[in-house]
Amino acid sequence: MNTTDIHEYMSARDAVGHGTHTASTAAGALVPDASFRGLASGVARGGAPRARLAVYKVCWATGDCTSADILAAFDAAIHDGVDVLSVSLGQAPPLPAYVDDVLAIGSFHAVVRGITVVCSAGNSGPYSETVINSAPWVLTVAAGTIDRTFLAKITLGNNSTYVGQTMYSGKHAATSMHIVYAEDVSSDNADDTDARIFECYSSKRKCGALLPNTRTASIPGGSRDRKKGPWCRSHLRAVFNQRYSICF
């Protein structure tokens, strides 16, 4: 990340936005009509919107998070008498032993003083079930559910409709398109005059896409569970000339 043009604040205010994001997750006030690019509009709020926040900044715009700053923040929070510590920090595997892990050490001192410590499970992988901050005295959490869905309706030529999910919010074709299986298409330079809906795992073509268990927001598309519906290779090749549409 290029941080050369980011202005740093010598206070608890964050320069990049991660601190604001995590603080709002913990105690953000109610915000009506919140949405992602117009999708799934509704009320958004933090876990405890009436809580009083005390913010301890340990990371800087350059990405530096020193052990000394982290431990100093734990000490300050303990001294201030906080009830809960929400720690959205961590390092990628391989993880150090608890006796060498600054977050495990700091959180232990907080827990023995009656403070609940909640740590992020991390985003690093390498597997979907991989977590960090696994010390037994902390509560390790990750987002698993939300209270709304991002729906896309996939309509076949016989008017059968299947519901998938999408994060795409841009323009999409108002008419139906032919569906093809991605491996059956040899052209890498398809344009808008040769539009197709592709059944594929990933695609850079200008097209609609049905992506099994895959995330994308850059092309018109939807994802759906591979275990549901008549979505297999033989089916796609059998209905090559059918027209499908995706409604967001």
> What is the rounded distance between the termini?
33 Å
Order of helices and strands: HEEHEHEEEEEEEEHE
CATH topology of the largest domain: Rossmann fold
Which whole number gives the mean pLDDT?
A: 77
| Annotated CATH architecture of the largest domain | 3-Layer(aba) Sandwich
For CATH, the homologous superfamily of the largest domain is named as Peptidase S8/S53 domain
Spans of 5+ residues with little confidence (pLDDT < 50)? 192-209, 228-232
Strand content: 15-25%
Q: Please summarize the sheet with the most strands.
A: 7 strands, mixed
Cα Rg: 23 Å
- Secondary structure category: alpha/beta
The CATH class of the largest domain, by name, is Alpha Beta
**Total discrete domains:** 2
The number of E-state strands comes to 12
What portion of residues is helical?
Answer: 10-25%
Q: Taking strands numbered 1, 2, ... along the chain, how are they ordered across the largest sheet?
A: 7-6-12-8-9-10-11
Walkthrough of the structure:
The chain is α/β, with parallel strands linked by helices and 248 residues long. The chain has 2 domains: 18-141, Peptidase S8/S53 domain (Rossmann fold), CATH 3.40.50; 151-247, Glucose Oxidase, domain 1. 16% of the residues lie in helices and 23% in strands. It is built from 4 helices and 12 strands. It has helices spanning 18-27, 67-80, 102-111, 233-238, and strands spanning 31-36, 39-44, 84-87, 116-120, 139-141, 151-155, 161-165, 177-181, 196-199, 208-212, 221-224, 243-247. The chain has a 7-stranded mixed β-sheet. A 3-stranded parallel β-sheet has the order 3-4-5, with helices on one face. It has a two-stranded antiparallel sheet with strand order 1-2. Helix 3 links the parallel strand 3 and strand 4. The longest helix has 14 residues, at 67-80. The protein is elongated. The chain starts with 17 loop residues before the first helix and ends with a strand. Mean pLDDT is 77; it is low at 192-209 and 228-232.
